[in-house]
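Reopening this one. Same input as before:
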Amino acid sequence: MPDSGLVLADDRLASMMDIPVTLTVVLGEKTIQLGKLYALSRGSVVEVDKKVGELVDIYVNKRLVARGEVQLTDEGRLAVSLSEIASANIG
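Same output, byte for byte:
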């Protein structure tokens, strides 16, 4: 006879799998003056604090959950390969 407590926990977990969350990948940050922001136009380049090859931060609902490496898919889209899962050492 299966443990009914385990079945309930599995059912609750399964019911949460369709809840939408917001995934954000931060490629880098830059602080600039409002005047410089206003002066940006098409083709302007804004340098951020990350370098090519550095891990980027991955957030779910504004909470840091992992770090990963930016990759390019065969279709020319950006993707992120997870390298570190959040722990007490991240953030």
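So the earlier flakiness isn't reproducible anymore. For the record, Residues 66 and 85 are 4 Å apart (CA to CA).
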